[in-house]
Amino acid sequence: MNTRHPEVRPVDWTRFEAVLFDLDGVVTPTAEVHMRAWAEMFNEFLSAYGADPAVDTAPYTDADYFAHVDGKPRYDGVRDFLVSRGIELPEGTSDDAPDQVTVRGLGNRKNDAFNVVLERDGVVAYPGSVALLDHLRDLGLPLAVVSSSANAPAVLAAAGLADRFETVVDGRVAHREGLPGKPAPDTFVHAATLLGTTPALSVVLEDAVSGVRAGVAGGFGLVIGVDRGAGDALRAAGADPVVADLAVLVPGAETGAVR
Which residues are catalytic? Predict the structure, then answer.
């Protein structure tokens, strides 16, 4: 066992009636694809923005992703990053072309980049996450994906996991139902309701600070942080435990990837 981290206490899954997974960075490593797509889009935009002493046009970094974008609905991520740099753009509409310099145009540009990479490279789920999915299936627990991304069904299909989840609450569902995105708890609460249970009897698994905050705000019975780069910020937001590999949540797993 990795002696830097204490062993995670066992999770009594029988206490719960549903398990809600964020997708990108929890089940599949598509967070990395999203990070590359965001970086390419924002750096292209910043380099073309022009000189303005009131605006910070330094290159976009991974720190910007975790601070302003990670886990949020796409347009919210664009908007929050621009605010952090002192940049004001028109909101635009969801139909804006990707070359339009609006909040929603930039969001659509990023979405196009993500889809190109997903189609080209595909995606393979984290082995530890599949091990936990197998264990929960054996227990008969209903599962849901709760993702800010509008691409969740395509990602699940590419990973061969579409049949593992009884429901998917993604960005399109949130828009249709008028649900605010993370860090508001509404999408998680909606998923628990669709699975016939309550937040208090449901588990949330999240790798984003905004998602952890959503789980805590919704009064979920257990909020598990999955550390793919956010680090101690997950625990500070209320996650307990924080793990680096979901395999440690399977009884009998031999790994020290916990925090």
Answer: 22, 24
